[in-house]
Structure formats: C-alpha cells, structure tokens
Amino acid sequence: MTADDDSAEITVPWFWGRVPDPGATEDEQSAWADGVVEMFTEWTREGWGEEFRQSWIAEENLPEDYPFTADNVGRGIARWLTARAATLPVWQRMAWGTAFIQGWPRWSPVPVVVEYRAPVADDPIYLMELVGADSGGGEPASSDGGLGLGRQIEYVSTPYGDGLRVLSVQRTNDHLAYGRLDAAMRLDWPAADDRPAARVDVLLTTRVMDLQLMGLIGPGVDKLMQQIAEHPRPIAPDLEPAGGARQEVNR
User: Fold this and answer.
1) Phi, psi (5° rounding) for residue 161?
2) Can you tell me the distance from the alpha carbon of 215 to that of 73, in angstroms, rounded to the nearest whole number?
3) CB atoms within 10 A of CB 250
4) Burial environment of residue 119 by CB neighbours within 10 A (0 to 12, 13 to 18, 19 or more)
5) pLDDT score recorded for residue 36
6) Which are the contacts of 48, defined by CB distance < 8 A and separation ≥ 6?
7) For residue 5, what are the CA distances in angstroms to 2, 10, 62, 113, 161?
8) Is 79 helix (H, G, I), strand (E, B) or coil?
9) Which residues of the chain are under the pLDDT cut of 50?
10) Strand pairing of 2-3 and 10-11?
C-alpha cells in the first residue's frame, strides 16, 4: 500500500478484467468462469485473508464453516457478475476488479459499468457534465434520492487521450454513506493493421458501500482507464446510447 505523492491518494495493487459480452456462447462463458477460478487458485495458494473471508460471510450470509475454495469463490463471483451484466442495456459492458492488501485479495469482485460511445460533440467538455464535474451543476445526483455530501475531482492522462474521475460521498435515504465514482475520457486511437483510426468517449461508473474501499476506488479505476485506453475496440452501432439511463452497480 503506497501513497500517491501528487494527490495523497492511497494506492494498492489491482487486477481488472472484463465480464463476457451478453452474446458470448456457453463455452465462452464456461471458459471465462474457469479462468476466474484459476486466478483465485493462484492468488490464494497460501490461504485466504481473514478480512476477505469475513466480508464474504457477512455479505453473502454464509455459515462460519463455509468451505473457502478457489472453485467455490471463483464460480460464485462468475455467477454474480454474469447475472448483473445481463441487466445492463446493450450499449454498456461490465468490468470487474480485485484489490489486494499485502498480497492478499481483499475486495472482489468490484464491478464497474463501462460505456463506449461515439462522441456526440467535437468538444469533450460535455463529458464533465455527464460525470457531475461541470462548474454549474452542484453535486452529482444520487440515483436512490440520497444526499450528496461532497466530491473529489481527479484528472487522468493516458497515451491516447485525457479524462477525469469524480468521487462523491453520498447518503442513502437510510443515512448510509457510500462512494459513487463516475469517470469519463475521450480517446483517439490510431489506425492499426486490423482496424481504422477511431475516436471514442468512454464512461465508467460504480458505487462502493465499504468505507475502506471508498478510499482506494479512485486510483483503482484510474488503472482500469489506462487499461481500456491501451486496448482499442471497435464501436458497433448497438453499443451507442439510445437515450436510456446509465446504470450503476454496488460493491
């Protein structure tokens, strides 16, 4: 665990991956789930971190003697992510992360909704409004009607374009605090042998209920943004927004 000198943010190692697209075949879904199991087999070769185990027991209402194996946890995570990814509109996809403390997986899965869209304006300034960072908009609205308590804006630079992320502290109507992170970037990918040059806007959003994770999610999503920028993908017509609301997922 380290502190970023520029922003005083705490950073930890992160893994980020993609949940298969809704059109994936059963064999592709199965192979992906097997891969999740293999990752947890490697990550927990020397056992399970106690904080991870206790958080899983609490969140999933599991018995204290639940058998923590890479197969049980990995396949449980794959099912959880697949079910939530299936609820997203066709122009959104889901990424998932794992944050590590002292080499142990501590928070997983951390879901992030990712939306690739064709730019709707030449000036990417409109993205600031979409993530609640515009100068005249006040706090980002809570989707459940809760109260916004403050926000932190950080700018992000990648080899193919720039963006920003906004972390706001919200409270639900039940007065529970959570962190909401919205991010956006404009990318200009150069042409390559297998694809033409492309300009794309990318929006990301997630919510975290764990207050410790709230302090780590910003730099974590920053790493995901860098990863997305380094892996160009085509923007198909069915991935463009059709006026629907952006969806959020909780962790």
Assistant:
1) 155, 170
2) 25
3) 11
4) middle
5) 98
6) 68, 104
7) 9, 9, 40, 29, 23
8) helix
9) 136-146, 237-239, 242-245
10) antiparallel
**What residue ranges in the chain does DSSP mark as E strands?**
2-3, 10-11, 14-18, 92-101, 104-117, 147-158, 161-171, 177-189, 198-208
Q: Whole-angstrom Cα distance, residue 119 to residue 140?
A: 22
What was the pLDDT predicted at 134? 75
The model's pLDDT over 44-97, given as tens digits with 9 standing for 90+, comes to 999 899 999 999 899 889 999 999 999 999 999 999 999 999 999 988 999 999
Which tokens is 126 given? 């409109």
Let me know how long the chain is: 251
Q: Which amino acid is at 169?
A: V
Of 204, 195, 206, nearest to 236 (Cα)?
A: 195
User: Is the alpha carbon torsion for 172, 149, 156, 116 positive or negative?
Assistant: positive
How far is it, in rounded angstroms, from Cα 207 to Cα 240? Answer: 23
d(CA 184, CA 186): 7
Tokens of 54: 């206790």
What CA–CA distance (Å, rounded) separates 51 from 57? Answer: 10
Spatial distance between the Cα atoms of 126 and 228, rounded to a whole number of angstroms: 20
The alpha-carbon radius of gyration of the chain (Å, integer) is 18
